[in-house]
Amino acid sequence: MKFIRTDIPDVIIIEPKVFGDDRGYFIETFRQDKLEDFLGFKVGFIQDNESKSSYGVLRGLHYQLAPAAQTKLVRVIKGKVLDVAVDIRKGSPTFGSHVAVELSEQNKRQMLVPRGFAHGFVVLEDDTIFAYKVDNYYSPENDRGLAFDDASLAINWIVDKELLQLSQKDTRQPTLEQAEFFDYRTDLYA
To answer: Is 96 helix (H, G, I), strand (E, B) or coil?
Structure first.
């Protein structure tokens, strides 16, 4: 596995080795020991989630406040998405910045979205299957979000806005200026 730091160094792209021949392919999609060696701290994933979506579905930008904050390891099994992580750690040198990466069944890339980031993705192919691991359970009382179209975030979602499909929840999220944040100085992995 190859680990690549992005422009926001805490957001990591993971490129697994693909072993393929005329029969198909084999990849390791997760190695806890290698990930923890790279990160320098333990990550204990406790739940796997999966969604299937059609073109233009936008899910996000979501996060959970402490003590239910989540690290996510996300990937695409089938199809293609633009995956986005927004730094919402107040005091961070990259606060309000984002990373946007294409994840697909072809490139087999994964993205590690750490605690302290809002996360979302837009689906770029019909019947896309998106999977992710989390290190904390869903907590409705700590569930928060950001407006996907907040001009201050300047996210290019690639899909024309009139073709986007959002849940009611995601059409009513606050802007970055109105949102609740994490404190950059707080240890989110305690």
So the answer is: coil
Taking the CA atoms of residue 56, residue 98, residue 70 and residue 77 in that order, the dihedral angle to the nearest 10 degrees is 40
Q: Please state, in angstroms and rounded to a whole number, the distance separating the CA atoms of residues 141 and 129.
A: 27
Distance of alpha carbon 119 from alpha carbon 123, whole angstroms: 14
Q: What is the mean pLDDT of each run of 10 residues along the chain (190 residues)?
A: 96 94 91 91 93 98 95 98 97 96 98 96 98 97 97 97 97 95 68
Q: Which residues are catalytic?
A: 62, 132
CA torsion sign for 80, 81, 82, 86 is negative
The residue behind tokens 């957001």 is 11
What's the predicted TM-score (pTM) here? 0.93
Q: Which domains does the chain have, with CATH numbers?
A: 2-183 (2.60.120.10)
